[in-house]
Amino acid sequence: MDILLVEDDPSVAASVIDGLENASMIVTHVSNGKDAISAAATTNPDLILLDLGLPDMDGQDVCRIIRETSSIPIIVLSARSEEIDRVLALEFGADDYMVKPFGMRELVARIRAVGRRSNQAESTATTSVQVIGPLSIDRRTQRVRVNGEDVYLTPKEFDLLAHLATDPGAVYRRNDIMSEVWDTNWYGTTKTVDAHVAALRKKLGNQDWIEAVRGVGFRLGITDS
Ligand code: CA
């Protein structure tokens, strides 16, 4: 795997590079946000490790900017350990989050897990476009349209919508959604699900398409007419 490491602390960078190279990964290292954005576009890595505290920009903005044009998996590395930051990391499009200091073994495992999920998303998406009434979901290109108009979703918003659309009308429990869409690393914050549902409703332009089932979870409420 080709990894883009964005980290300004030379000692952290050195140990991460060492650990990843031992795990047979190829690492490109940059130490500021500006270089990260250009390297993400030009070197086409399989995954980005992104420190949040960078000298020139906030890592959150770097993540958002990369997300505008790319769905490369991003794991955020940060010393900030408050729950609010975990939720924020999801909100701005990260796929996973590691709090410093972390062990190399865990980092390598997370990289492989995130990489596997994104490969699966690519290879299992053979039945390309699902159409439900005015909504179409293309799992291969991760494109969503409403009445033929493109709707831009973050990768997690897409995953959430695609998950609910697996069986339209069926009720999905909050905790199951958490573990399917966010993996179990994100223990305890089902508020994240609510935040993403709210964002999805807004972007899809119809509040009724994702129905809340009180005390249980959510279902896709679009009828195919
Ligand atoms: Ca830093």
UniProtKB/TrEMBL annotation:
Organism placement in taxonomy: unclassified sequences, metagenomes, ecological metagenomes
InterPro entries tied to this protein: CheY-like_superfamily, OmpR/PhoB-type_DNA-bd, Sig_transdc_resp-reg_C-effctor, Sig_transdc_resp-reg_receiver, WalR-like, WH-like_DNA-bd_sf
CDD domains cross-referenced by the UniProt entry: trans_reg_C
Domain spans labelled OmpR/PhoB-type: 127-222
Native source organism of the sequence: freshwater metagenome
SUPFAM superfamilies: C-terminal effector domain of the bipartite response regulators, CheY-like
A GO cellular component annotation in the UniProt record: cytosol
Protein name: Unannotated protein
A GO biological process held by the record: regulation of DNA-templated transcription
Domain Response regulatory stretches: 2-115
